[in-house]
Amino acid sequence: MSIGQLRICAAPEPISRHGFITKSIDLIVARSRGCSAPNIHIELMAAHTSGTIQEDAAIRGGDKLILRGLKFHGFHGVKPEERTLGQKFVIDVDAWMDLREAGKSDRLSDTISYTEIYRIVKEVVEGPPHNLLESVAQLIASTSLKNYPQISAVSVKVGKPHVAVHGPLDYLGVEIFRYRSVDAPN
């Protein structure tokens, strides 16, 4: 969904696509064919297909359960050694839901136990192998939304700290964000 556009006819050299401005806004810069000098098209686009930026802000600014740095051994990946030897995966999950009643009552029955989300992550990561981290993250997100109707949105980050890359790094991975209104399984 395009929410704005700015056109500038100035730069003397070709311009290429750039990355994210923020988590929810994407910046696209491209050369136009119809101008002697390149046009720079800057389009602000909603990062999610679920609805409005206000909906995104309301969910992300709301209450959430937070699970950080969950570590499991799994056999995900496309390389043979990833499937036979396995490797460590590091997972972060944010589950957005209204926590007011639990805050007032101090009863576990008015919320979701962290251990339930932990169990989902453990079962997925230690379960049957997937080729892609995107698939691992998607299964964690969709299972969380399916099992717990209180969750309005979920963010899942899956990292691989031990990858065949020459250079220092903490991990490589993916992060997905799913809304109940769009992404919950039926």
Features:
186 residues; alpha+beta; GTP Cyclohydrolase I, domain 2; 2 domains; four-stranded antiparallel β-sheet; 31% strand
Task: Note down, in words, how this protein is organized.
The structure is a single chain. By secondary structure, the chain is of the alpha+beta class. The chain folds into 2 domains: 2-47, no CATH class; 57-183, GTP Cyclohydrolase I, domain 2. It is built from 6 helices and 8 strands. A 4-stranded antiparallel sheet has the order 1-4-3-2, with no helix packed on it. A hairpin with a 2-residue loop joins β2 (20-22) and β3. α4 packs antiparallel against α5 (133-147). The longest helix has 15 residues, at 133-147. The chain is elongated. Residues 1-33 and 35-50 have low confidence and may be disordered. It holds the Pfam family FolB. One of its GO terms (cellular component) is cytoplasm. One of its GO terms (biological process) is folic acid biosynthetic process. Belongs to the DHNA family. Keywords: Folate biosynthesis, Lyase.
Poorly predicted ranges (pLDDT <50, ≥5 residues)? 1-33, 35-50
Provide the CATH architecture of the largest domain. Answer: 2-Layer Sandwich
Q: Which superfamily, in CATH terms, is the homologous superfamily of the largest domain?
A: GTP cyclohydrolase I, C-terminal domain/NADPH-dependent 7-cyano-7-deazaguanine reductase, N-terminal domain
CATH topology of the largest domain: GTP Cyclohydrolase I, domain 2
Question: Strand content of the residues, in percent?
Answer: 25-35%
Q: Give the total of domains.
A: 2
Compute the CA-based radius of gyration: 20 Å
Structure class: alpha+beta
Average pLDDT across residues? 78
Number of helices: 6
Largest sheet: 4 strands, antiparallel
Pattern of helices and strands: EEEEHEHEHHHEEH
Shape: elongated
Instruction: Give the CATH level 1 class of the largest domain.
Output: Alpha Beta
State the separation between the terminal residues, measured CA to CA. Answer: 25 Å
Strand order of the largest sheet: 1-4-3-2
GO biological process, one term: tetrahydrofolate biosynthetic process
GO molecular function: dihydroneopterin aldolase activity
Family: Belongs to the DHNA family.
GO cellular component, one term: cytoplasm
